[in-house]
């Protein structure tokens, strides 16, 4: 009974901390990730979580990771404005691709160099694969942090906010699908193959997008008709899980189906969140079906609970059995900052962006839920295959990077806001 009470106390503490962290974020611009990760780390140390049954922990991680993938991508879809997406797409897409690609390349370079120098004990032939997967895991920014933070910065141009928002929306599914494709190749093809990877990604994106779009159009009128029924939003959530499951089974679990399922959830959410606009584009003249605010609020709440749990869980699973992982994480963090700087230079070139906006874009690089769930779900099995003597390699380094990018973002934005306020006080006109 005492164990149950302890578990309930921890659960209550996690929920309270999630609320308090969000409250602090709304007033101080300090992301709740910082408190949740540290709290999880404390729980892990106190209860010695990493010494529990690894099979049980893996089962829990895989189930909640699947749920989190569905929720995070569906929530991203319903909260994306289609017109804004099209309007800011060129620069936003350019930033997404360059930032992600450079993050993966520089992370791989760091891992290969550390392996060659003997600092990281892994087979040299596995260092490239390890670096590529780790780079993909931490390659994207977190939309739940970037979007509200950007919207709060009054001196930031609207187009800059749009580009940052689009980047954070695109990179979440990009990270998830690329990692899923990499895991598929490692498990079933014996290693990474660029041609197979590109082919798999193209197939995954196309099948997932088409399936999600068709199912979204079919569900729109049903959702609209059921909107006045009590708890109708639960029905939509159930359908989202079915969309993921059906798409995954359609493509096949052993042929990259999880990636297709992830994309189908994103597109399904995009259709439901922009029903009126999509039907207008399709020149449909009937009822203007759209998602009601109550359903959107419910899914935002679900996403909040999932995020809170996962960041605490990541902190719990971090062991730092090898203290060197902290320094590796810091080295990769510096590489990600360099990648960010270069990608901002490229994506804003001749774009008319102000200097203050470009500086803000550089520090707006927090990693979040996608990185946490990918590290927790695939990290242990990948480490077992690639670096058997470093079991917590992916989780520990991802923890350092998520925490580090949150601190860089918070400190950077605070300094920029302070500088802008000082500048305006000296030149009020």
Protein model, in words:
- Helices cover 80% and strands 0% of the residues.
- The protein has a single domain (31-426), classed as Na+/H+ antiporter like fold.
- It is globular and about 65 Å long.
- It has helices spanning 2-28, 33-47, 54-78, 82-87, 89-116, 124-137, 143-152, 158-188, 194-225, 232-251, 257-273, 275-281, 293-317, 324-347, 355-363, 369-386, 393-426.
- The protein has 17 helices and no strands.
- It starts with a helix and ends with a helix.
- The mean pLDDT is 83.
- α1 packs across α13 (293-317).
- It has 429 residues and is an all-alpha fold.
CATH architecture: Up-down Bundle
The tally of beta strands, per DSSP, is 0
Structure class: mainly alpha
CATH class: Mainly Alpha
CATH overall fold name? Na+/H+ antiporter like fold
The residue ranges in which pLDDT falls below 50 over 5 or more consecutive positions are none
Please describe the structure with a list of short key phrases separated by commas or semicolons.
429 residues; mainly alpha; Na+/H+ antiporter like fold; 17 helices; 80% helix
Could you provide a short overview of the structure?
This protein has 429 residues and is mainly alpha-helical.
Topology:
Elements: H1 2-28, H2 33-47, H3 54-78, H4 82-87, H5 89-116, H6 124-137, H7 143-152, H8 158-188, H9 194-225, H10 232-251, H11 257-273, H12 275-281, H13 293-317, H14 324-347, H15 355-363, H16 369-386, H17 393-426
Helix pairs in contact: 1-2, 1-13, 2-13, 3-8, 3-11, 3-13, 3-16, 5-6, 5-8, 5-14, 6-16, 7-8, 8-9, 8-11, 8-16, 9-10, 9-11, 10-11, 10-13, 13-16, 14-15, 14-17, 15-17, 16-17
